[in-house]
Specification:
With 450 residues, the chain is of the alpha+beta class. The chain is built from 17 helices and eight strands.
Length: 450
């Protein structure tokens, strides 16, 4: 290998022809550094111009080994001659002691990169992206609904990530998980409670299980953490007089929330499914008008046909006056995303209902949620004689077992009958006939008795 009496001036003078590459050992009589190498390369830039690149490296052998190793130090002039000599000296001296300084630095760099890459927030993004596109594991893979994954993202952004952001996923201990879900259950981390805490714990467990399968970590810190609170199934069902007064509040509420709440009650479908309803999902001209919710938007992960009662169609017809060109959503404020802000809308409804009850000197309506509208509709349909099986088809509840895989009949006629009866009943509640007006059936019974 050629040698060079290295000085800054000598390093600047040495050149290489296009396509050539030459390594020079440091041969300065006084300041020579053993193992220091200057690689000079030339490349053609056109018009007779040659670009010369000068790169420092160190050649060394580990203690007890005959294998010659090369470590790149850096380019000149970013690394000066003096700096390159110092770096080469560190590498060579460490090798003589049996220490591979380069390998240690690379390991440190990889660990740092992994720490920056495998933070809780970074892993949560990868996990959520995976869950949005990959089906559930099991004998019958089903794609997770957008409603479900959107809810997971809310739990992460609001409750889990704020205290853990920037921390490596392996740093989280069982005590961290227990402390976090306990605080959420007690409402110390914004709006929380036992139910939210349980959902957050489930999300943490699922995320860590996914990270284990991906080889990012070896254990799940949430495995033995107990759910912070027992969940009790809600049983709130609105009474007839309560249905009437909340419907009046729906009527007084402008688009999009007034019609949204009406359709949620009439169809008995989930809040997010109604909110994201699109015009293309509606078949109003068919003999049996239907709203078909795509599998990607249902909690059960399967397409769901919802027969529309005459009362539901009337609400949809009203919504046509708000329809905008090139906007697919029925309920939207910006034309791009489904309506949100349900909590604020519910507060406005509660205020309107309280005022109406106060004016009539009636007791206040007990607390209810948007989901209670769905339970109320289901309860009334059951009271009319709708079987539990047909009701589960109306609500699109998951039907497990072997039989469910073969019984593909959707019971559309039965669902249509149940929802039509519910719509007619709801209309009679919110628009009662005057006391002196009898129905045809009532008149016939009176005539028969006479």
């Amino acid at each position: 290998m050629p040698t060079l009496k290295m000085t800054d001036a000598a390093v600047q003078r040495v050149v290489a022809a296009p396509g050539e590459r030459t390594d020079y050992f440091d041969a300065h009589p006084r300041d020579r550094q053993r193992g220091l190498v200057l690689r000079v390369s030339g490349s053609d830039e056109g018009d007779g111009k040659v670009k010369v690149t000068r790169t420092w490296s160190a050649l060394y052998r580990m203690k007890g080994s005959t294998k010659l190793r090369r470590a790149t130090i850096g380019d000149y002039p970013s690394y000066s001659l003096a700096k390159a000599r110092d770096e080469a000296s560190l590498i060579v001296q460490a090798a003589r002691r049996g220490e591979d300084l380069i390998a240690e630095r690379e390991a440190t760099t990889r660990a740092k990169a992994a720490k920056e890459r495998d933070t809780v927030d970074q892993v949560s993004k990868l996990w959520l992206a995976h869950w949005r596109t990959k089906p559930k594991r099991g004998k019958r893979p089903v794609k997770r609904s957008e409603e479900y994954t959107d809810k997971l993202e809310q739990y992460l952004d609001k409750h889990i990530l704020p205290p853990w952001r920037g921390r490596h996923i392996a740093e989280i201990r069982r005590a961290d998980v227990d402390e976090l879900v306990s605080e959420i259950a007690q409402g110390k981390k914004g709006k929380g409670g036992p139910v939210v805490a349980n959902r957050c714990l489930a999300a943490i467990k699922a995320m860590y299980n996914w990270a284990i399968r991906g080889g990012l970590i070896e254990s799940n810190p949430a495995t033995l953490v107990e759910r912070p609170g027992a969940e009790t199934a809600r049983e709130r069902v609105l009474a007839t007089d309560e249905i009437a007064v909340v419907w009046s509040a729906f009527n007084a509420m402008p688009y999009p929330f007034g019609p949204f709440f009406k359709l949620a009650l009439l169809t008995a479908q989930r809040r997010e499914e109604v909110a994201a309803m699109e015009w293309s999902e509606l078949d109003l001209e068919a003999e049996h008008p239907t709203w078909t919710i795509p599998a990607s938007r249902t909690k059960a992960g399967r397409e769901h046909a919802v027969p529309l009662s005459a009362e539901a169609i009337a609400v949809v017809e009203e919504l046509k006056s708000y329809r905008r060109k090139d906007v697919s959503l029925l309920f939207t404020t910006n034309g791009r995303t489904p309506v949100s802000g349900f909590s604020r809308a519910k507060i406005a409804i509660d205020k309107a209902v309280a005022k109406m009850r106060e004016e009539k000197k009636l007791d206040p309506v007990a607390h209810w949620t948007v989901h209670d509208l769905r339970r109320t509709a289901a309860t009334e349909m059951s009271r009319f004689g709708t079987t539990r099986f047909v009701l589960s088809r109306v609500l699109n509840h998951t039907d497990g077992g072997v039989t469910a895989r073969y019984a593909r009949y959707d019971h559309l006629a039965e669902k249509e009958a149940a929802l039509a009866q519910w719509g007619a009943y709801l209309k009679s509640v919110v628009s009662p006939k005057p006391a002196n007006v009898a129905s045809l059936a009532q008149r016939r019974r009176s005539e028969a008795a006479a």
